[in-house]
Amino acid sequence: MEPIDLAFTLNGEAISRKAMPADMMLVDFLREELGLTGTKFCCGIAVCRVCTVSVARTESAHQVAIRSCTTPLKDINGHIVTTVEGLADKDGLHPLQDAFLENFSFQCGYCCPGFLMGAYALLDKLRRQPIPKEAVDAAIEDAVGQHICRCTGYVRYHRAIRQVVLSTPGLVT
Amino acid sequence: MRTTRREILSTVVSGIALSVTPISLLTNAGMEAAKAATVAPPPNWSDGPGRARHRIDGLEKVTGEKVYARDFHARDLAGWPDQEDVVMVMRAPLAHRRIEDVDLSDLPAALQPKARVTAADLERDHVSIAKVDYPEGDYLLPMGKVPDYIGQAVAILFYDDYFTMDRARREIRSQVQQGLRFGEEVPPGPETYFQPETSIIHARSPDPKVRSEFLSQVTGGPVRPQENKTARDREAMAWVDKIRAMLQPDNKDGFSVVSQSYETQVVDPMFMEPESGLSWLDRSDGTLHLLIGTQSPAYDVTAAVALFADPLCKLGVKNVELIAAYPGGGFGGRDTSILCLFLALSAAYSDQPVRIVYDRFEQFQAGIKRHASRCEVALAAGSDGKLRAIRNYVYLNGGGRRNVSTYVAQVAGLQATGAYAIPMADIWSRALRTRAVTAGSMRGFGSVQCLFAVETAVDELAQKIGVDPIELRRRNVLAPGQTIDTGAPVAPPGLAEMCDRAAQHRLWRDREERRAASANEDYAYGVGFAIGMKNYGTGANAALDEVAIDAEGRITVTTNVIDMGTGTATTLAIATAKYLGANATAVRTGYLRPFDALKLEASFKMQADNPRWTPIIYESTKAASTSSKWVHGVEQACKVLLQCGLLPAAREIWGVAPGDVRLADVLWEGGSLQAAGHEPLPLAALAQHAHDRGHVVSAMIHAFFSGRWVEADYTVSDETYRWQIDALSLLRAGQTERELVDRKNARLFTVESIWEGNGQEYGGSACLASVRVDRKTGEVRLEEAVHLTGAGKVLQQDLVEGQLEGCFAMGVGQALLEYLPTYEGGAGDGLWNLHRYHVPLSADVALGRVETVILPPESNDAPARGISEVGLVPVAPAIGNAVSHATGVRFRQLPLTAEHVRAAWRG
To answer: What is the ipTM of this complex?
Structure first.
């Protein structure tokens, strides 16, 4: 496969590289090339969703949670990528991060960035299309139900996400 | 195959006496011990003294900071060269053919390794098999031999970069012979048993005045009574025969008997971060540096040292240092893992730092597993529903390396009578050496297997004699404080209460009605119950802790224990509040090196006159010990710091003599030390004064526990205190040298007293589960559950609940989902990943429909019990019993996959 000239936006910053292998997986690029190790590697075959990052085609497009372990660089070229390192801003942590902390959602923490990014994409979806309160649990299950956590039994991840969804204006009808 | 003690008389090999070799780092001359990175917590993690608003390590983890071994490159570490080699460990995917050679001829030129190391190199360079590493088999398989086990390492391949190595390993994995040249087929050898075995024979007289017979290695043997060599052997075997007679179907006592075999599967810990690490041999001074996310830093260092211990070995390793990173999950699977040895070997053959980063396929192939098991159980009850006798012969498949398998068998033996008082017991627990992937420590440590067998058998027995299954258990569970029939002195409280709560729960009350109602549905409904116990701690625990306070009143805890996600760092941070009135502001986990200051000397033989002696210096992080053992250590260090540092400072400020205000006269309130008639003193002011006046500002302790803590007198500044520690080092403000304080009048342990006292501590847990079993597919869906645990004193509610929620999910996986073939086609073939190894997802664990019940502490001084293992043990048998209730078919083999259920039941 021909190398590509890579240019995309990562956590608000422009990233460009000449002649990159088109089939290099995004997780490897983030971790090995950029040293951004917040995005984790676990199964490498798109099952566990630990490596989830959020991708948008344009600034105004939907945030889509994708598995970076099976997403080659050519597929995100020109896109906007958000990883766990891009969640907090100058005002502090993202509400999801605060909720994960306060609910003791994670234990070893290795799957935490994947849950955060899956939930981050869910918030974007609900912002565009709010849902009834009674549909929130199903929406959370739909968003992060395939994410694997070996430590926690999922109880506190779902609790924290529900808390953020219900307390963020405009997500629930 | 079934064996009895009588049948194997002619086949036994000579036994090895039970021995536990304490690890003594300090006797390894010239070795540098470990160090680790500190996690600096955010200021708002604390929720007041003794409480946490969130985990102390939470901010780093929730923002994606580098905290796991996999996150680090050599360039990230101060003093290390920037360039690194990336290494792949090649493994044999089978163990029934010779491996003739490494054959990478099908690998494209761009993917060829720049160097490789094989067994021939290790032999040429006199690399030793580490004694501490249980010397069985080769680290790298010599060419022309049949692998000892499936997945045994064959070669180490070196690459310049991660991307090339990663492509190469994918390519090698895709090849039929996976980069090796297979030779002739050789049938597998006979299975043997790792030594020592665990044998417990208990004959309790109904007359309390008559002394019970208790024959096991913890009371001087016999270990292998079936050898019939001594009078004691014959005495033991006479009891074995009596118990066997009681367990015959046509026994003369008229007991009802269930006699069945129960099996559990190989399980992978499946911690989320595949094992990874860095190593570097700094040839300027011969120091081998390791960075690993490990549960056992002391083992890793000791084993790495031993590799190069042969005087003829000229690879240049003189010292070993280890940085313990936060593990991305552990569950036992990072305790004495072989990864450290491959890191050490790789570094010794490279001119630059080396990095190993397993992918998930490699982790399945190389990682430690939970033992597949078979338990042959015979259980008898009288017409009164009282259990009268049990035989439980436990077989745990340890795979190709002993690792900790014999200890797992030992703990399995301790749980082999379940949570019950059974007067006659014949327990024999053994670890098999086979060609399977190595099994070792995993959450539950033999108990999961044993409890599945016992709790299924009890259910069968209840059915047979027509007694409600919970009622049968209720009549037989151990009373609080009762001696456990496998030897430990104190049964936990709450077992009867758990039975009562479950029996009164609507799930149980309505179970027959709901089962009947499901007859016309497309699923069958059932409810099951199970109860179990598990020891927390090992019965011989050692804790190392240092607590220091700076001039601003900031408290730092340093410890050798690590936090694999259980909340250890947070728990130790809030443990300082009891004596210092405030939480720690930093916790340094995984440290060994600072504790050299205690100058401890370890041996199991007592040295009463040697104040440096202790039975065990370092322990790995295991056995749910943190909440009880390391917390004690931190509290004792804080007590020392208060009595020798802050209280003297307070007296000076208050202008009182030492005798006027003592420990009992003060308390912390609102962050200030208070005493009647004196102004409250804020911690920071006290700390500043202690620093100004040269008082003690750091207390480092070693504590040893076996049913009770070693305690001794310590004299500091002419005053003598009695503390529950066995070694103490102090640092006074303004000094650079620490001061050792010798213990006096110590209540120590002898080896014999450790064994005889059997200082195991236990917790209890129970589970009530309801299931729906699809009549067409056989799929089992968990509907609801109640999960009860006696935690005792709760240090941090969120952490305890989180552990129990995790236990429950892992139990669901054990019961319904997780499966690896034991031998060929199993994890050792290198082709397993999460596409076919199914761990529970949120939809599998009845999210929101599980009541987690933590029983109230039984008293004001109830201990904080380690619950992160015991919470797991009742879950799988409860689900299994529920499936049997639903289907009317008894299932004695895990996991209960749809295929498994469908094969036995046509709904």
So the answer is: 0.98
Average pLDDT over residues B494-513: 98
pTM above 0.90, yes or no: yes
What is the share, in percent, of chain B residues with pLDDT greater than 90?
83
Residue B754 φ/ψ, nearest 5 degrees: -65, -50
pLDDT tens, position by position, B709-745: 999 999 999 999 999 999 999 999 999 999 999 999 9
Partners of residue B833 in chain A, C-beta under 8 Å: 43-45, 47
Least CA distance to B564: which residue of chain A?
A: A108
**Secondary structure element (H or E) that encloses residue B282, with its range:** strand B276-282
Q: Between chains, do A156 and B802 touch, taking CB under 8 Å as contact?
A: yes
A contacts of B60 (beta carbons < 8 Å): 109
Q: Mark yes or no for CB contact B271/A38 under 8 Å.
A: no
The verdict on a CB contact (< 8 Å) between B272 and A111 is yes
**pLDDT (0 to 100) of residue B10:** 30
- For residue B489, the Cα-to-chain-centroid distance in whole angstroms is 21
Nearest CA in chain B to A83: B64
Closest residue in B to A156 (Cα) is B802
Residue B329 near residue A110, CB atoms below 8 Å: yes
Query: Residue A149: phi, psi to the nearest 5?
Result: -130, 130
pLDDT tens per residue, range B96-154: 999 999 999 999 999 999 999 999 999 999 998 766 555 566 899 999 999 999 999 99
Smallest CA–CA separation between A158 and chain B, in Å?
9
Distance, in angstroms, between B838 CA and closest chain A CA? Answer: 10
Closest CA to B563 of B324, B805, B307: B324
Of the partner residues A97, A149, A154, the one whose CB lies closest to the CB of residue B62:
A97
Query: Quick check: B833 and A83 CB within 8 A?
Result: no
Question: Least CB-CB distance to B359: which of A32, A37, A44?
Answer: A44
Cβ–Cβ of B843/A42 closer than 8 Å? no
Report whether pLDDT(A93) > 60: yes
Both tokens assigned to B642: 């208060």
**B596-625 as b/e, with b when 16 or more CB fall inside 10 Å?**
ebbebebbbebeeeebbbbbbbbbbbbbbb
Is the pLDDT assigned to residue B837 strictly greater than 70? Answer: yes
* Nearest residue of B to residue A35, measured between CA atoms: B71
Q: Is the pLDDT of residue B269 over 80?
A: yes
What are residue B727's DSSP bridge partners?
B702
